């Protein structure tokens, strides 16, 4: 018996990294999974994104737990495609109980100041994409009629301006992740009458392909920004995806049944430096 038996969870950005970690952990606790990812690169984002092979690996890992999974290729920036994918998952698994809006991009190390495509892409993915995820999923939770839990994946950069370097990429990332916190707080109020809890997790840098790639590593090596990575706890340059997943698991579980409208930092002390 798991804490999430007989539930259906939607997870965006599920092909790899945090999304895969969240999907497998929720499945291990009994949830069936609608796993969504763009499975394509984006011109303005200077590192490879997840692939269809990555998404299928996530799906197989979920199947290995004994739970059902519906992999969906959809871009969270495209509301119509996202809604269609979610509908397909609901047709197969039933209405939704849990949402983890995890899809996001960054371009740490891109020094361009006036790179409007970079700024727009980051905001459209990280903020508009989260709003689209709410639009595509919450009506199903309401229709099911037994409440639910929504976790929006923000960042420690959604709670601080530390590390700003004037680049379009960092301005967009901080602004979008602050926006996710505002969206969470508003949604917590809006959906409370339906017994839907809404919270955010706010990790610092996480050891996933979004950070561990040649572009970001080379950019941070050439232009170090200690304020982005400095932690209070020693020997913790990056947190692990599993550590973020543990916070997500708590927030979506019955153990957090009266917890809503909060941001949970998983940052090894980044915010208090």
TrEMBL record:
It comes from the Bacteria. InterPro entries: NAD(P)-bd_dom_sf (IPR036291), SDR_fam (IPR002347), SDR_subfam_1 (IPR023985). Keywords: NAD, Oxidoreductase. Pfam families: adh_short (PF00106). SUPFAM superfamilies: NAD(P)-binding Rossmann-fold domains. Signal peptide: none annotated. NCBIfam families: PRK12826.1-3, SDR_subfam_1. Belongs to the short-chain dehydrogenases/reductases (SDR) family. This is Mycofactocin-coupled SDR family oxidoreductase.
């Amino acid at each position: 018996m798991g804490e999430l038996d007989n539930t259906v969870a939607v997870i965006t950005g599920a092909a790899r990294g945090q999304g895969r970690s969240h999907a497998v952990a929720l499945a291990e606790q009994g949830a069936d999974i609608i796993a969504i990812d763009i499975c394509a690169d984006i011109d303005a984002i200077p590192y490879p994104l997840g692939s269809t092979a990555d998404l299928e690996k996530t799906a197989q890992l979920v199947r290995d737990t004994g739970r059902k999974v519906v992999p969906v290729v959809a871009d969270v920036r495209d509301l119509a495609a996202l809604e269609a994918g979610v509908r397909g998952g609901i047709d197969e698994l039933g209405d939704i109980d849990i949402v983890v809006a995890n899809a996001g991009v960054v371009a740490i190390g891109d020094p361009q100041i006036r790179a409007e495509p970079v700024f727009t892409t980051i905001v459209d993915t990280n903020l508009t994409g989260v709003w689209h995820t709410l639009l595509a999923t919450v009506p199903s939770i309401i229709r099911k009629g037994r409440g639910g839990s929504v976790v929006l994946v923000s960042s420690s950069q959604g709670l601080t301006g530390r590390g700003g370097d004037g680049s379009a990429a960092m301005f967009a990332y901080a602004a979008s992740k602050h926006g996710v916190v505002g969206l969470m707080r508003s949604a917590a109020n809006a959906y409370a009458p339906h017994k839907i809890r809404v919270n955010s997790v706010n990790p610092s840098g996480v050891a996933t392909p979004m950070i561990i790639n040649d572009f970001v590593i080379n950019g941070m090596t050439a232009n170090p920004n200690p304020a982005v990575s400095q932690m209070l706890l020693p020997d913790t340059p990056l947190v692990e995806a599993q550590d973020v997943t543990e916070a997500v698991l708590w927030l979506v579980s019955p153990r957090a049944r009266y917890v809503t409208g909060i941001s949970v930092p998983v940052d090894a002390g980044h915010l208090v430096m």
